[in-house]
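User: Sequence for Two component transcriptional regulator, LuxR family below. Tokens please.
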Amino acid sequence: MKIFIVNNHQILIDGLLSLFFRMKNFKVIGSTTTLNKALEQENFFSTDILLVDEYENVENIKQIKKRKKSLKIISLSICNDLKKVKTLFQVGIDGFMEVKGGFPQLLEAMKKVELGEFYMCECLKNKLVDSFTHPNQPVENLKIYEKIETLTKREFEVMESICKGLKSKEISDLLFISTNTVETHRRNIFHKLDVNNSISLVKLALENKLVEY
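Assistant: Structure tokens for Two component transcriptional regulator, LuxR family:
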């Protein structure tokens, strides 16, 4: 697995380089302190996973995912501000963790995103739960994040498209997959989020701010 590291703390880069050097299945093909510098390197888009800090321009991240959708991006952060995290996921990151989580947690995150899943560190999950705990919020919604995390990246994209009112053929054309695959994802989404139809899905997504309408 090819890795590229972008972080404005050189000491963190050096630490990761040392740790990955001992791993047989990982190869760091580049590292810089800014994403702009990384984009100037010829081998940048040959990477499989990009480890980037949260201070990077979200527009750069959006453009990277637009050019190479298969490139997995994990944001390494010193904080877990929900508004910031939401923005990062909206522009295309696949995982988020705090740097204090340690190297084993990073390996776990990389394994998950490689399989097409989202990754959120426990501290972020807890903060997400806390954001739900107010008097007007139904108790059942406290565990919604657990259901959300079971969605694959592709299922989340299909869910977003359904919530935008797109039909199966339109989703098929948008995501370059067959209509049968769209329907399979639709059934899986309904099952994982415990809804019976598209109307219930849209209602759940909007109530929990999973998508913007």
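The CA atoms of residues 120 and 173 lie 30 Å apart.
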